[in-house]
Every structure is written in C-alpha cells, then in structure tokens.
Specification:
It comes from Myotis lucifugus. This protein is α/β, with parallel strands linked by helices. It is 32% helix and 22% strand. Helix 3 crosses helix 13. 45% of the residues are buried. The structure holds (2~{S})-2-(hexadecanoylamino)-3-phenyl-propanoic acid and zinc ion (ZN) (2 copies).
Length: 447
C-alpha cells in the first residue's frame, strides 16, 4: 500500500503534494494504535513530514531517534519488470520505488511500534520517530524543520539511527561472507558550476577555441585527474581490519597487516566504483549545457560537477584542488551548494547507539560474524541533526548485494517479504533493547 502512493520528489520545492498528503492518511489507517496511544504525540511538520514523540516511563534515560523518509526519486515505467508504483509481489519480492529507499524503514518502524503497543509494551526510554518528506531533494522542508523544532524544545539525543548502509554481500572481492556495515560518518558534497563565456559570432569564421571546447577540456581534466586517495584516514582501515579474519589466505594476511600492505590495498579499492567511492572524494560531471544554434559560435558553456567529499577533506580543500586541476582562468567557478562531510560518531564500547545496533544485529542475524564501522557514500537526512547529537548511525537491517545497490534510484528496486519482516523484527527488538538498563556488553572479539 505504501509503495502504491507515488510520493515523488522531483526538484527542491517540487513534490507530489497530493501523494504526500495521501501518505499521511494511509499511515493513520494502517497503524491505528500508534495514533491513538496516549503517550505518543504526533505532529505534522513542514506540511508533510511526521514527528512522533514517544514518551517513555523513565525520564532519566536520554531519548534517541529513528529516522526514515517517505519521499522517493522518480521512476519511469521503462525497464521495470512490474510497474514501479504497483507494489506488486512476485516470487517472494515486493517490487517498487521506495522498497529499499526508504519506505521499508518508514513502514517497518511504524509496524514494529504498532505491534509493541498492541502487546501493551510501554517504553522506558523516550524516543522520536522523524519521517521526512523531501530527503531526495535536500531535506530543507522536512528534516531541517524537525531538527530546528526539537532544538527549540531543548532536546538532546543519545543517538540517531537513519538509512545509509546495509548488511553488505559481495561488495568486497574475495570476501565471501556478508557483514554488517554501520556507517559512522557520511561524505560531504560540493556542486560546482564551471562556466566559459565567449563573444558569439558567425560559425563560418570560428575562433581557434570555442567556449564549448575550453569547457570540455576543463571537465575532461577533472575526470582524468582523480582526487587523492585518502585510504589511510577515516574509518575504512578499521572496517577492513575487523574483516581481516573473514578472508581466506593470503588476503587475511594482507588485511591483518595493513601497516605493511596498505599501498596494495588502497590500489585494490580503487578498482571498483563503489569501493573507490570509499577511498576518495569522487568527481562526477552531471550536467553540460551549451550552444544555441548550429551556425552560431556559442556565447556560454556551463557544466556542473558533483563532488562527494571524503570525510578527511573539506569543501575548501576540494575547491582548491579542482581549481589547481583546471588551471585555466577562462573557466569561472561558481559554488552552487556545498555540505561538509559529517564527523565520525563514536563506535567504542561506551557508544550506546552503536552497541545497541550491534547487539540487535547479533540477535536478529546470528549468522553475521562482523559488525564494522563504515562511511556512507551518499547523503542522508541525518546530516541535518548534528545539533542534537554526536551519535549518528546509518544502518538498515537488510541484506544488500551490488545488484540491489544499483536498483536504488534505478530499476526493479525490490525487497523480499522475508527481508521486510526481518526489518520489522529488528526494530521491534531494538526498541526493547534500548530500554534495558545496563550498557550493552562490550564486544567480544570474533573467533
Ligand atoms: C565496502 C563496500 C561499501 C559498499 C557501500 C554500499 C552502501 C550502500 C549505500 C546506500 C545508500 C543509500 C542512501 C541513499 C541516500 C541518497 O540517495 N541520498 C541523496 C540525497 C541528496 C539528494 C539531493 C541532493 C543532495 C543529496 C544523495 O546522496 O544524492
Ligand atoms: Zn534514502
Ligand atoms: Zn534516495
């Protein structure tokens, strides 16, 4: 039912408002207990986002927050095995836009809460559920407003859990077993517009170089000159060290001795697009516009480049690197938008949020040996909540293979019924684990 409501975000400020309103009515209908429970306050924020405040019985415990978003990216029918907004089930899978990003979380959170309430569960620790409606176009109207509202109320959170990582299966060559990656940081971004202006004229007597030629060369230099490999800095080294014993010989020796082999490993990571995204700031030329008529020398040429900034770099550093690569004063640089990478959230034995996620993974997925910290390569709504907590964790309790990763924002996005049920179970257990008094036991080293 949730998938059938086309809550598409097209551009900042451009949403399917009819669908967003319908989605609000839909959750009222299917989760009646959540909405009529006296200790749960429901508020609509920014017209279409939802904030639930679940008042726990023990005010001495610091609250936490679960995040998800109800909007989705557009999905033209072409290439889909079943229409993207049909929500049809086939061979045990629910197909449709939003099944992995991120209506699975929206529905699983509310469904888990509904089930707990039906069983008369009364949480001890207060928590919030924030469902943004414009994550896919920046979160300015949803997450940002909810964050400001909670800040005005003086709320401080123990931690936040959002989307952004999964139980990864088949992403690291020669690692046979899946592992859970909990992202403790998130890449930043810089959208840069490059522009070249030239005097227009008749194409029969062209200048040696046109604005298009100059810009194309600049853009090509950016593509051909990757930003530096930052393998050594950031959580990735730790991720691989934790995975070391999961590899067979000789990879296990290599990953156990990164002090010696890191140059080889950092090269290996560059080979595949996804692992490359973990080791450096990536450069993606995403738009290119120029020319007005076949026989007119183009006055203006513009290109936009989307950099995703490694947590060990800053917006200013990347801007300088980009200028140093282009080295052509005829090319003007305009910063359209930027966002710094997110600080690394704690993941030590005392980090409540991280340890609760870890503990719940170990009980719901007993077959998973490794829970490792990582970096989210995309941006999530959680980046708007740094004023409320230092513990931001991005993790969805769902198995993900590279082909599933491509289905996110792509075609044939789907989730198995069993995987969805497991996600509900995970949240059902997580909420209860967050109520247990003692700190989660520190992690024992895997055998
Ligand atoms: C070791 C192997 C690592 C493998 C990594 C694979 C992990 C999969 C990560 C999946 C991320 C899902 C979250 C997607 C969120 C998303 O699409 N965010 C968007 C948000 C956004 C929208 C408009 C403007 C700016 C930003 C984005 O980052 O573009
Ligand atoms: Zn998402
Ligand atoms: Zn998305």
């Amino acid at each position: 039912g949730a998938i059938q409501i086309p809550t598409v975000s097209f551009n900042p400020g451009e949403f399917n408002t009819t669908a967003l309103a319908a989605f609000g009515e839909y959750i009222h209908k299917v989760f009646p207990t959540v909405f009529r429970t006296s200790f749960i306050q429901h508020e609509v924020v920014g017209e279409y986002s939802h904030l639930f405040t679940v008042q726990g019985s023990d005010p001495s415990l610091q609250p936490y927050m679960l995040l998800a978003h109800i909007d989705v990216v557009p999905a033209p029918d072409q290439g889909w095995e079943v229409p993207p907004f049909s929500g049809l089930e086939r061979d045990g899978f629910i197909y449709g836009r939003g099944t992995l990003d991120n209506k699975n979380s929206v529905m699983a959170i509310l469904q888990a809460l509904e089930l707990l309430l039906i069983r008369n569960y009364i949480p001890r620790r207060s928590f919030f559920i924030a469902l943004g409606h414009d994550e896919e176009v920046s979160g300015a109207h949803g997450a940002q407003k909810i964050s400001a509202l909670l800040q005005a109320r003086g709320v401080q959170l123990a931690f936040i859990v959002d989307e952004g990582s999964f139980i990864l299966d088949g992403f690291i060559p020669s690692l046979k077993k899946p592992f859970a990656m909990v992202s403790v940081s998130e890449k930043g971004s810089l959208n840069l517009m490059l522009e070249v202006n030239k005097t227009p004229g008749h194409s029969s007597a062209p200048p040696k170089e046109t604005s298009i030629g100059i810009l194309a060369a600049a853009v090509s230099r950016l593509e051909q000159t990757p930003m530096p490999n930052m393998f050594g800095s950031g959580p990735l080294k730790m991720t691989l060290q934790q995975l070391a014993n999961e590899f067979s010989f000789p990879a296990n020796v290599i990953f156990n001795n990164l002090w010696l082999f890191w140059p080889i490993v950092s090269r290996l990571m560059e080979r595949e697009d996804i692992t490359n995204a973990l080791v450096r700031t990536t450069t993606a030329v995403t738009m290119f516009n120029a020319g007005i008529k076949v026989n007119v020398i183009p006055p203006v040429a513009q290109a936009t480049v989307n950099f995703r900034i490694h947590p060990a770099q800053t917006v200013q550093e990347v801007l300088k690197l980009a200028k140093d690569i282009v080295v052509d004063d005829r090319v003007q640089f305009h910063v359209l938008e930027s966002f710094e990478p997110l600080p690394v959230s704690p993941f030590d034995d005392q980090a409540l949020g991280y340890q609760l996620i870890r503990q719940t993974i170990q009980s719901v997925f007993p077959e998973i040996n490794i829970v490792a910290p990582g970096t989210c390569i995309a941006q999530t709504d959680s980046r708007h909540y740094t004023n409320l907590t230092t513990g931001i964790y991005r993790f969805n309790p769902v198995y993900l293979q590279p082909q599933d990763f491509r289905s996110i924002h792509g075609i044939n996005e789907r989730i198995s019924v069993q995987a969805y049920e497991t996600q509900v179970k995970f949240i059902f257990e997580f909420i209860q684990n967050a109520d247990t008094e003692q700190r989660p036991v520190s992690h024992l080293h895997e055998l």
